[in-house]
């Protein structure tokens, strides 16, 4: 996925980031910006679900003097104008009201905006990134999201798997956030192997955001430099792994044992994920390796 992000960052295509809440969509949006030719320009984020609908239009498109009661005399620039020569990240795009979807579609088509209360089009040079945890395709079929806008946004869709499906990221993220909060708070903390194992085994329903919050919590409340399993919350305690995941009950030639373990791991990964690409990611090998092993297993079973 990182390779795709870096490749897409070099062009101005609209990107739609898809995934559960907390998987890191905003972080990837920032990466797309910093690795692009617009990196020196502004990165502006708008949460379409957090701003009240009556205010959202003026926040996005700005307004002219006297546009409404309480408007500033000199008018105000909107987020599109603030993001000129940079990137505008529209988070939770699935929450955008239908009437504003029409306006956004026009911006994507014409590359210009009209402020609230104004008539003069203003040209903008902005790259649009959008994100949602919703199924926009299904919403379009149900009439809750404009189909033409969905097609405009869905130029390069990037699905971000939940953290439980990319466990290889958990430990690097653990140490990344440890270093982040060490620098932020000026404290030094580390984790026992049992805590690291617990982090790896946990399903993280809140994804990257939950993991980050847990690291911060443990670091600031820990009385000492070493964080051990006794400081983990109860829902982590029940998930602590056993000391050994494999039990040897009888002897057999090592080559046969390795082949049998490989067969079982690949079979289980394919049953759970149904894709050689996902199975390869979980097992930490190339997709071609999994594909060859699957073909061999099926041939042996035939």
From TrEMBL:
<keyword id="KW-0238">DNA-binding</keyword>
<dbReference type="InterPro" id="IPR058031">
    <property type="entry name" value="AAA_lid_NorR"/>
</dbReference>
<dbReference type="InterPro" id="IPR025944">
    <property type="entry name" value="Sigma_54_int_dom_CS"/>
</dbReference>
<dbReference type="InterPro" id="IPR002078">
    <property type="entry name" value="Sigma_54_int"/>
</dbReference>
<feature type="domain" description="Sigma-54 factor interaction">
    <location>
        <begin position="1"/>
        <end position="220"/>
    </location>
</feature>
<dbReference type="GO" id="GO:0003677">
    <property type="term" value="F:DNA binding"/>
</dbReference>
<keyword id="KW-0547">Nucleotide-binding</keyword>
<dbReference type="InterPro" id="IPR025662">
    <property type="entry name" value="Sigma_54_int_dom_ATP-bd_1"/>
</dbReference>
<dbReference type="GO" id="GO:0005524">
    <property type="term" value="F:ATP binding"/>
</dbReference>
<dbReference type="InterPro" id="IPR000847">
    <property type="entry name" value="LysR_HTH_N"/>
</dbReference>
<keyword id="KW-0067">ATP-binding</keyword>
<dbReference type="InterPro" id="IPR009057">
    <property type="entry name" value="Homeodomain-like_sf"/>
</dbReference>
<keyword id="KW-0805">Transcription regulation</keyword>
<dbReference type="InterPro" id="IPR027417">
    <property type="entry name" value="P-loop_NTPase"/>
</dbReference>
<dbReference type="InterPro" id="IPR025943">
    <property type="entry name" value="Sigma_54_int_dom_ATP-bd_2"/>
</dbReference>
<dbReference type="Pfam" id="PF00158">
    <property type="entry name" value="Sigma54_activat"/>
</dbReference>
<dbReference type="GO" id="GO:0003700">
    <property type="term" value="F:DNA-binding transcription factor activity"/>
</dbReference>
<dbReference type="Pfam" id="PF18024">
    <property type="entry name" value="HTH_50"/>
</dbReference>
<dbReference type="InterPro" id="IPR003593">
    <property type="entry name" value="AAA+_ATPase"/>
</dbReference>
<protein>
    <recommendedName>
        <fullName>HTH-type transcriptional regulatory protein TyrR</fullName>
    </recommendedName>
</protein>
<dbReference type="Pfam" id="PF25601">
    <property type="entry name" value="AAA_lid_14"/>
</dbReference>
<feature type="domain" description="HTH lysR-type">
    <location>
        <begin position="268"/>
        <end position="302"/>
    </location>
</feature>
<keyword id="KW-0804">Transcription</keyword>
<keyword id="KW-0058">Aromatic hydrocarbons catabolism</keyword>
<dbReference type="InterPro" id="IPR030828">
    <property type="entry name" value="HTH_TyrR"/>
</dbReference>
